[in-house]
Specification:
322 residues; alpha/beta; Inosine-uridine Nucleoside N-ribohydrolase, Chain A; 10-stranded mixed beta sheet
Length: 322
């Protein structure tokens, strides 16, 4: 009798254990190639067994070149199984700092990002987490085309916005107040649609994402040599040369980290309104977003660095185009 009861209990518990262990299906929407943090964000997603990267969509500006860069990065990681889709092309005034590295990759055709996003949601209703680390143009286009399908996303985890702190407000001096953050301000209409969509939104604004990848951490990364870590170092050097900056700020990486380990950036329910200039305002009303206003930099890097340093993804020897 006891053995039958034990077997019965195991049958109840084991499916839950396996469900908890199953990796989360994610799609990344990224404007990789301008600033360097997108490359780190994609690397973290690839190095994290908690996530199943269903696909990566390029967003904003020269989306075809961004797709070419993603192809090369995935090749270096040994993950050419991950599909890359090209998003809506737009005009961008931001320098494509890693253009040379992207152009050296092999040119190949890509399918449409908006089609892919909606198709994957239809195939996996309630299961897809969209990690949005770019201006929201692809996302706005998906909502315009099929809002009912878009609402079947499990959630959107995004880097974007500014609630109480703006660029450079790091807590060492009085904050100058919120700014119109780039990912929101570049496509205000799409941002408004997202916050009105009814899809659960988890928002990592400037308040919690100004995380400096300082000299000590860059030196630690230089002590590991794999095709992917070597690529990160070259891409960082290209970004430094074009932007005349030294220390990357890993804004977008927090969105990926949150999707894996939400306690790194505890979120508060708020009602967010997007004004015409791209400011994200906390206003009275029913919450439409969960917003992380503060993070612990030490805890974030204690989580991130072992994954960057410990990954041993090995790519192909033919990731450069002919």
């Amino acid at each position: 009798m006891k053995s039958k009861l034990l077997i019965f209990m195991m049958l109840l518990v084991l499916p839950r254990l396996f469900a908890q262990a199953a990796p989360e299906k994610v799609i990344l929407d990224t404007d990789i190639g301008d600033d360097i943090y997108d490359a780190f964000a994609v690397t973290l997603a690839l190095a994290s067994p908690e996530l199943k990267v269903v696909g990566i969509t390029s967003a904003w500006g020269d989306t075809e070149l961004r797709s070419r860069m993603l192809d090369r990065l995935l090749c270096e990681a040994g993950r050419s199984d991950v599909p890359v889709l090209t998003g809506v092309k737009t005009e961008s005034k931001t320098p494509f700092s890693q253009e040379a590295w992207a152009h050296a990759g092999e040119a190949r055709p890509h399918h449409n990002a908006v089609d892919f996003l909606l198709d994957e949601i239809r195939k996996n209703p309630g299961e897809i987490t969209l990690i949005a680390i770019a201006p929201l143009t692809n996302i706005g286009a998906a909502m315009d085309r099929d809002p009912a399908t878009f609402r079947k996303l499990k959630r959107v985890v995004m880097m974007g916005g500014s609630i109480r702190r703006g660029y450079g407000d790091l807590g060492f001096a009085p904050a100058h107040g919120p700014d119109a953050e780039y990912n929101i301000a570049m496509d205000v209409a799409a941002a408004r649609k997202l916050f009105q969509s009814g899809v659960p939104v988890y928002m990592m604004p400037l308040d919690s994402t100004q995380l400096a990848f300082d000299e000590t951490k860059r030196e630690m990364l230089s002590m590991v040599s794999t095709p992917l870590t070597d690529s990160l170092q070259v891409l960082t050097a290209e970004w430094q040369r074009v932007t005349h900056q030294i220390t990357p700020t890993l804004f977008d990486v927090m969105a990926v980290a949150y999707a894996i380990k939400p306690e790194l950036c505890p979120a508060t329910a708020m009602h967010i309104d997007v004004d015409g200039a791209g400011f994200t305002r906390e206003v009275p009303g029913t919450p439409n977003a969960n917003v992380c206003l503060e993070s612990d930099s030490d805890r974030f890097f204690q989580f991130l660095m072992p994954r960057l340093l410990g990954q041993r993804l090995q790519g192909s020897s033919s990731c450069v185009g002919k």
